[in-house]
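As described in the Methods, two query proteins were run sequentially through the folding procedure within a single session, without resetting any intermediate state between them. The first query and its resulting structure tokens are shown here.
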Amino acid sequence: MATLVTFHAHPDDECINCGGVMRKAADEGHRVVLVVATRGELGEVEDGFLAPGEDLTTRRVAETHAAADILGVSRVEFLGYTDSGMMGEPSNDTPGTFWTASVEEAAARLAKILVDESADVLTIYDDNGGYGHPDHIQVYRVGKRAAELAGTARVYQATANRDDVRKHMSEAAAADGDDSFGPPEEWEIGKPLAELTARVDVSAHVAAKRAAMRAHASQISEESFFLAMPDPVFAEAFGVEWFIREGAGPGITETDIMAGL
């Protein structure tokens, strides 16, 4: 049995980015540990969604634990930083946010968990955080440094296949006439296929991945992009998870981030 530590910025990021490999690893007998930098304090929620007296932070922590159970997670840890908000918002500079945190200090917190768990594999994000969110970019910086401090050699950057994203979003925009996202060639989501080194087929685990998304009901409603699509379309869109491993490639050279462990 090996240990996978998967590091994310906010509650719900884990199931969207790595839900398939998490459930796959758990089903194969590996230990899965989820570390979240913030509690998603700045998430948006519809009026009346929360119970009287309930705050969003408490709700999002509970949702994270519920999703973690679905994904086979053995341990959940929060690093204790607060949500920085989208890039360019005033909240980016608020003291205590993840974006303003010292990379060395935050990396030491994560490295302690990696050492405690004798982590074999760590997932972080790509250097642009997938789509430019400050907390996601910080996950890359902090995670990479933490792996160095802890001596965790196998580090995978969770990302998206930009070529696929542009293709599917372009097709969707053409079908419903919605061009609000702008020209497909300008969508800076994920990385080009040529830069990706690992393609993991998680089609056997998409039901768990979708159920974990549903557990984050405060942020992912039934009307959302993720849950509104029919099951077959969801399986096609989320049945593969993509990663970059420094030193691997060029091209896809791995199909299982836990291979050989």
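Immediately afterward, the second query was submitted; its sequence and tokens are:
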Amino acid sequence: MVAVGRPGERLPQVGAQRVYLTDDAWQARIIELMEGAALVVLRTGSSAGFHWEVGRALSTLSPEKLLVIVDNRKELRGLLEVIANHLGQPSAKVSCRGKNIGSVKGLVMFEDGWVPRPLRLRRGTLRDLGEWGNLSTRFVLSLQPLFERHGIRATIPPISRLKIVGVAFLLVWAALAAFVWD
């Protein structure tokens, strides 16, 4: 996984390996990276460079090769307008569902014809998080439809028996309390 670093970034963000490109070389390198990628992930943005990348993705990729991470709903609407203008169609309406995962408000993949398909942000409440942690588990659960589309078998943490027993205990206690106080 390779990410293009933001111009002027003093310290790289945690995550993917970053490459930093000069103003005169970044577009050619982006094209090269997109053409060789199994999946391109764009995080919503509003800069001219971001809109250029979206246009290039539309002309270079098939829809199933693009995933958008939504951290700003207004920027998502702008992205969907760019796609609609490129296709000569009305802009699609997309509703991001589920509780945010950190700053991520949604995930959007695309069907044939560049039809956006939002992925529900899953909670993973009853999962045994172990070494995974809550954020990783939530992303893996939320991205299941994308993994399945690409034939990727993701390992999902098992449901915790202890958590199920705890929930069952609370439900029994609540039922008994309601019966006794009634």
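The helical segments are 26-36, 48-60, 73-87, 134-142, 144-149, 161-181. We note this only descriptively and draw no conclusion about the first query from it.
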